[in-house]
Write a structure and sequence with these properties.
Layout (H helix, E strand, L loop, with lengths): L2 H11 L11 E5 L5 H9 L4 E4 L2 H14 L4 E4 L8 H7 L2 E5 L2 H14 L4 E5 L16 H10 L3 E6 L9 H13 L4 E3 L6 H6 L4 E4 L1 H4 L7
Parallel strand pairs: 1-2, 1-8, 2-3, 3-4, 4-5, 5-6, 6-7
This protein binds pyridoxal-5'-phosphate (PLP).
Length: 218
């Protein structure tokens, strides 16, 4: 789908027919996409992008940023503490904080680099054993730790379980964000972003619906 078509769907789901008034940010998920597809999207005016791997993002975004002003880069994949330095240097929003250990690693790097990207906490709303993110009951504790460390926590992020209806997960994330006064809610992907917006998403992470299917790894 074209970027304009996606933006129109976002605006319609948000109940806002005029694009420029949409309060929902499209995060274009460019992971695994070839550089030409990304530059097309930049040329079309897109500036907010999501990547799930620090290394892949580091291999191309510094160059792209030289050519395009105003890029805002979100880390949407799991972050290991030992990659905190690269993540802090590169990303504007780190959406996947999910442990005290990572919070400490990020805070140490942010201080060292004097660079303070925004942070969202990833919540494992389905409490799936194999999935990243913190259990809902542990959110209050992690949030307190992160704030004490000086992290700029401004939102929550979730990826609902594949086999569930996403509604209850989006609703739970919304409730948790409201309880903790967090303004940003990153939820909704290609298949369910309109539902997520109706349940309060401020950031939707859209890959395949925007770029087409990701190329298969060779
Ligand atoms: C890949 C990915 C997306 C985008 O998924 P699509 O279904 O292609 O829109 C969104 N969020 C995260 C965390 C991802 O890893």
């Amino acid at each position: 789908m074209s970027r304009d078509a996606i933006l129109q769907q976002i605006a319609a789901a948000a109940g806002e027919p005029r694009l420029s008034h949409s309060g929902v940010t499209l995060v274009a998920v460019s992971k695994q996409q070839p550089i030409e597809r990304i530059t097309e999207m930049l040329d079309a005016g897109q500036r907010v992008f999501g990547e799930n791997r620090v290394q892949e993002a580091a291999s191309r975004w510094p160059d792209l940023r030289q050519k395009y002003a105003g890029v805002e880069l979100h880390l949407i994949g799991h972050l290991q503490s030992n990659k905190a330095a690269d993540a802090v240097a590169l990303f504007d929003v780190i959406e996947t904080l999910d442990s005290d250990k990572l919070a400490r690693a990020l805070a140490a790097e942010m201080q060292k680099q004097d660079r303070w990207p925004e942070v969202y906490i990833q919540v494992n709303t389905g409490e799936e054993a194999q999935k990243d993110g913190i259990a809902p009951r542990d959110l209050t504790g992690l949030l307190a730790t992160a704030r004490e460390l000086g992290l700029k926590v401004s939102g929550l992020m979730c990826i609902p379980p594949q086999d569930d209806l996403p509604e209850m997960h989006f609703a739970l994330l919304h409730k948790l964000a409201a309880r903790h006064n967090l303004p940003h809610l990153s939820m909704g992907m290609s298949g369910d972003f309109e539902t997520a917006i109706r349940l309060g998403a401020t950031h939707v992470r859209i890959g395949s619906a925007l770029f087409g299917a990701r190329p298969q790894a060779a």
